[in-house]
Design a protein that fits this description.
The complex is a heterodimer of chains A (about 350) and B (about 280).
Chain A (H helix, E strand, L loop, with lengths): L2 H15 L3 H20 L7 E9 L5 H9 L3 E7 L3 H9 L5 E5 L3 H6 L7 E3 L6 H17 L18 H9 L1 H31 L2 H8 L2 H27 L6 H23 L5 H21 L6 H8 L2 H12 L9 H27 L1
Parallel strand pairs in A: 1-2, 1-3
Antiparallel strand pairs in A: 3-4
Chain B lengths: L19 E6 L5 H8 L11 E2 L2 E2 L4 H4 L3 E4 L11 H12 L3 H10 L15 H12 L6 E5 L7 H16 L3 E6 L2 H7 L2 E6 L2 E6 L1 H8 L3 E6 L4 E5 L3 H12 L3 E7 L3 H9 L2 H7 L1
The chains are: A alpha/beta (about 350), B alpha/beta (about 280).
Chain lengths: ~350, ~280
C-alpha cells in the first residue's frame, strides 16, 4: 500500500464528495439535530432569578440573611428604593418579583419578641420566584431574631434507582441528547456518507480508473480516512456550538475514534452490496435505524431485554462509554465489555471487508 | 469465466511494440473481458498473458505504470474540473504537474480546464479521458470503444491522435464496433466470436481472404451490373461485354472489413440464435 496514493485519493474525495448533496445532508443533519436538542433540552441552568424592591428606613441585615437562606437556588437582585412609594411603583410596573418594606425599629423589635409588622408587596401576577422568596422569609426572620432552625429536613429516595432510570438524571437530559446526536453523527458519516461515496465510484466506474493505478485496499483506506476526517471536524464543531464539555476527554476521544473505525468498516462493507449510490441512499433509513436506535435507547428507561440488545450494538456500547466520559461519576458499569463489543464489531467488519475485496479481485 | 460461461476461451495472440492492434467482435464476444484481464481488473481462471514481459497476474505492480486505458464509459469526476481530474491521476502515477498542462494542450482543453466536467460535451469528456490515459506516457494504451458516441469531427481527431501515438512508439490495443475505424487505424486485427479468435491478420489480408471481390460495370445502354470476380459466370459475362465493346466503365471493389466481420463473426442475431 502506498501512503502517497492513499492521500491523493483522500484529497480527491475531500474536494469531490463535499459537493454531493447526499454527503452534505449526512454531515449537516446530525449537527442540526444536536444543536436543536442542545437548545430544547437546555437544563444547564436551573437557578431562579428574582428581583426584590427593598425599602428600609434604617440599615437592615435582611438582604444578607435572605441571600444566605435561599443559597444558590435563587439568584437574588436587590433594588434599594428611596421610599415606600417607589417600591409600590416597581411592583405596579412589574419590575420586581417581590417588594419588602421594613418599618423603623423592625430588627430590634423582632429580637425583643414584639412581633412587628412586615409589609410584602407582590406584582399583579405573582411569580414563582416571588412565592419562593415569601416562603423563605419565615426562616430568614427567625435567623434575624436569633432563633435556631427548629428542625433539619432530609429528603431521601424510598429505594435505590435502577441504572437506566438514573442515567439521564446523572448526566442531564441535554447532555444525553447531545451525546446521542454525536453517536448519530458518527453513524451517519460512517454508514451513509462514506458508503455513498464508494458506491458512486462503483456506479460511475471511476473506481475502475483508480484501481488501474492503485489497489482496492488503497481506495478503501482513503475512504476510511475520509470518514475519520469528517468525524474529526464535525464532532468538535458540534461540541463548540453546544459548549458541551466531556469530563474525561481522553476516553471521549478514544471511544469516538474506535466507534468511527468500526462503523466505517461496516459502512464500506455495506457499500459492496449496493450497485449505485441512489440505491444505497434509498435503503439508508432502514440500514441506519438499527445503528442509531441503540444510541437513543441507552439512557432512557427501557425494558431490560431491549437495553441488553442495544448494548450489544457498537453504537449502544459506544453511547454507554461516552456517557461515562461526560460524568464525574460512573453512569454505567461494564466499561471493558463495552470496549470489547466495539472492537469485536470492528474486527468482524474489516475481516469481512478484506474477504469481500479478495473476492472482488478474483 | 462468469458462472458457467467462458467469456474468453483459449485465445492467443501477441502485439508488437508500436503496433496498433484491433480486437473486433459483437457485444458479448469477449472484448471487454480480454481488456479487463490484461489491465488486471479481472483475474483469468486459466492461461497466462504477459505485457512487456511481465505476467499480468503475478507482476501487476510492474505493469500498472506502463499501461493505461481509455474506458468505454466516460468515468470522470463530474464535480471536479478537467484540470483536477488530470491532477489526481498525475499524482497517482507520480507524473509531474507540467504533464497536465501538456495534455490539456494536446487534447485542446486548455480553455475549459477550470470548468467542472459536468459542463463538458461528450466530445470534450472523451478528449479528457484520452488525456487522462496518457498521463503516465503508457507504453501500452488500451482503447475500449473510444469513438462511441462521438461526432464525426471528434472521432476524426481521436483517430489522428492514435496515429500520432503509434508513430511515437506507443503500442495501442483497440476494441471498436466501427470497421472503417479498425481498417484505418489497425496494423492487425483479430476477430473475436463467442470468446474465441476466429481470424487474425492485417486488414488488407483479411479483406482479400474473406471479402467479396466485385466489379461494378456500366454498359453503353446505361445499365449497371455488379459482378463477382470469383464467379466464373460473371467473368464470362464481363469478357463478352468487353469483346462486344459494350462496356463504358468498370470499377473494381475489394471486400470491406464489415464483410469479413459478417463472414467470420456472423450477424449478431444469428450468433444469439446459435447460442
Amino acid at each position: 500500500m502506498s501512503l502517497k496514493r492513499i492521500f491523493t485519493i483522500f484529497r480527491k474525495d475531500l474536494r469531490d464528495a463535499i459537493r454531493d448533496a447526499r454527503v452534505l445532508v449526512a454531515l449537516i443533519l446530525p449537527l442540526g439535530i444536536g444543536i436543536f436538542y442542545n437548545i430544547t433540552f437546555d437544563d444547564s441552568d436551573t437557578t431562579l432569578e428574582a428581583k426584590i424592591a427593598f425599602y428600609s428606613a434604617e440599615s437592615s441585615t435582611l438582604p444578607n440573611t435572605l441571600t444566605g437562606v435561599v443559597g444558590d437556588s435563587v439568584d437574588l437582585q436587590f433594588f434599594v428604593a428611596e421610599s415606600e412609594a417607589q417600591v409600590q411603583r416597581e411592583l405596579q410596573d412589574e419590575n420586581a418579583d417581590l417588594g419588602i418594606i421594613i418599618p423603623p425599629g423592625f430588627e430590634s423589635a423582632i429580637r425583643d419578641g414584639q412581633q412587628p409588622q412586615l409589609t410584602l408587596l407582590q406584582p399583579a401576577s405573582p411569580t414563582i420566584a416571588g412565592n419562593y422568596l415569601i416562603a423563605a422569609l419565615d426562616p430568614t426572620i427567625r435567623l434575624m431574631a436569633g432563633q435556631s432552625v427548629p428542625a433539619v429536613i432530609t429528603v431521601a429516595n424510598a429505594g435505590e434507582p435502577t441504572e437506566s432510570e438514573s442515567a439521564i438524571d446523572k448526566i442531564g437530559l441535554r447532555n444525553w441528547a447531545v451525546l446521542a446526536s454525536i453517536t448519530m453523527m458518527v453513524a451517519m458519516i460512517s454508514m451513509l456518507a462514506i458508503p455513498v461515496i464508494l458506491a458512486e465510484e462503483k456506479e460511475k466506474k471511476t473506481l475502475d480508473a483508480l484501481v488501474l493505478v492503485s489497489s482496492m485496499r488503497e481506495v478503501i483506506a482513503a475512504k476510511a480516512f475520509l470518514g475519520l476526517f469528517y468525524v474529526a471536524v464535525m464532532v468538535p464543531l458540534l461540541l463548540a456550538i453546544t459548549t458541551f464539555r466531556p469530563v474525561d476527554y481522553a476516553t471521549f476521544a478514544v471511544v469516538i475514534l474506535l466507534l468511527t473505525i468500526t462503523l466505517v468498516g461496516l459502512g464500506l462493507l455495506m457499500a459492496g452490496f449496493f450497485n449505485n449510490a441512489n440505491q444505497l441512499n434509498t435503503w439508508s433509513g432502514i440500514v441506519l435505524l438499527p445503528v442509531i436506535a441503540p444510541a437513543f435507547i441507552i439512557g432512557v428507561p427501557a425494558p431490560d431485554a431491549l437495553r441488553t440488545i442495544a448494548e450489544l450494538f457498537p453504537t449502544g456500547a459506544g453511547t454507554k462509554l461516552l456517557m461515562n466520559s461526560v460524568s464525574t461519576e460512573q453512569v454505567f458499569s461494564g466499561t471493558a465489555l463495552s470496549f470489547v463489543v466495539i472492537v469485536v464489531w470492528g474486527v468482524a467488519a474489516y475481516a469481512l471487508l478484506s474477504w469481500q475485496l479478495s473476492r472482488r479481485q478474483s | 469465466m462468469y458462472g458457467e460461461v467462458h467469456a474468453v476461451d483459449g485465445i492467443s495472440f501477441d502485439v508488437a511494440p508500436g503496433e496498433v492492434f484491433g480486437l473486433l467482435g459483437h457485444n458479448g464476444a469477449g472484448k471487454t473481458t480480454t481488456i479487463r484481464m490484461l489491465t488486471g481488473r479481472t483475474r483469468p481462471t486459466g492461461g497466462s498473458a504477459r505485457i512487456a514481459g511481465f505476467d499480468i497476474v503475478s507482476q501487476r505492480t510492474e505493469i500498472k505504470p506502463i499501461i493505461n486505458l481509455v474506458f468505454e464509459e466516460q468515468n470522470l469526476y463530474d464535480r471536479l474540473t478537467g484540470r483536477d481530474n488530470l491532477e489526481v491521476f498525475a499524482d497517482l502515477y507520480g507524473a509531474p504537474r507540467k504533464r497536465v498542462d501538456e495534455l490539456l494542450e494536446t487534447v485542446n482543453l486548455v480553455d475549459a480546464a477550470k470548468r467542472r466536467v459536468k459542463t463538458y460535451s461528450t466530445g470534450m469528456k472523451q478528449r479528457l479521458l484520452i488525456a487522462r490515459a496518457l498521463i503516465n506516457q503508457p507504453r501500452l494504451l488500451f482503447l475500449d470503444e473510444p469513438t462511441r458516441g462521438l461526432d464525426p469531427a471528434s472521432a476524426r481527431d481521436l483517430r489522428n491522435l492514435v496515429q500520432r501515438l503509434s508513430a511515437g512508439g506507443t503500442t495501442v490495443f483497440l476494441t471498436t464496433h466501427y470497421m472503417e475505424e479498425a481498417d484505418e487505424l489497425c496494423d492487425r486485427v483479430a476477430f473475436l466470436s463467442a470468446g474465441k479468435i476466429v481470424a487474425l491478420d492485417t486488414p488488407q489480408e483479411l479483406k482479400l481472404q474473406y471479402g467479396n471481390r466485385s466489379a461494378v460495370v456500366l454498359l453503353r445502354d446505361r445499365t449497371e451490373h455488379t459482378l463477382s470476380l470469383d464467379q466464373s459466370d460473371d467473368a464470362r459475362d464481363l469478357a463478352d461485354w468487353m469483346n462486344a465493346g459494350k462496356v463504358l466503365t468498370i470499377h473494381s471493389q475489394e471486400g470491406s472489413l464489415e464483410d469479413v466481420f459478417i463472414a467470420l463473426a456472423g450477424a449478431p442475431e444469428r450468433k444469439q440464435a446459435e447460442s
